[in-house]
Amino acid sequence: MNIYLVRHGETDNNYNKTYYGSLDCELNDKGKAQSLKVKEKLQNINFQKVFSSNMKRAKETAQIILGENHCEIIEEKRISEMNMGIFEGKGHEELKEKYSKEWEMWCNNWKDYKIPEGESYIEFYNRVKEFFLELLNGEEDNILIITHGGVIKSICSYILGENLDIFWKIASRNGDITLIKYEYENLYLDSIVPVEI
C-alpha cells in the first residue's frame, strides 16, 4: 500500500506565519500554482481512494490535483488541522503579548496543554492516529490524502516509533508530497518530495 500525503497549497495565513488550524481560509495564487505542480507529479498514479480534510484549503487543493478525474473525494474531519483556539490567526509576538500566560503554559507543555477554546496536541494526535490506523485495514494499492502540516508530521511521528518529541524535527511545507509505504505489515517513510514554485 502506498499512502501519499499532500500538504495543501499556501494560504495568506501561511505567508503571514500565523497560527491557524480551524480558520477556514482559501488558497492564495501561490497555493494554486503549487497544487498544479502536485497534479503534474501525481498524474500517472491511479488512486483507489482520495481523502481530504474538510477545510477549504485542503478541498481546493484536492480539486486542483484531481482535475477532470472523477474520483470521489472523501471529506474527513479527523485529518483537519489542530484547533488552536484563542491562538488562531495570531503570530508569535502577538501571542506573547496578548496571551502571555497561555503561551508560556503551551510552550512548557505543548503535548498536554489544551489551548482555551481549542484542543491539546494529544487530543489532535489521537484523532489523526485513529484515522490512519483504519487506512491500514484496507486493500487499496494507492491512497491520496490532502491534509495539513500538523497531520502529516503527526503521522510521521507515529511511523517513526510513536515518538511525539520528533514532531518539531519533521518538515512539511505547502505542496510537499510525503510517501508512506505499508508492506508486509511494516510501515516506513519512503520519501518527501518538495514542490518548488
UniProtKB/TrEMBL annotation:
Keyword Coiled coil: no
Keyword Transit peptide among UniProt keywords: no
InterPro entries: His_Pase_superF_clade-1, His_PPase_superfam, PG/BPGM_mutase_AS, Phosphoglycerate_Mutase, Ribazole_CobC
Pfam families named in the record: His_Phos_1
Cleavable signal peptide: none
Keywords, ordered alphabetically: Hydrolase
EC number: 3.1.3.73
Membrane spanning residue stretches: none
Name of this protein: Alpha-ribazole phosphatase
Species this chain originates from: Clostridium malenominatum
Name of the gene encoding the protein in the UniProt record: cobC
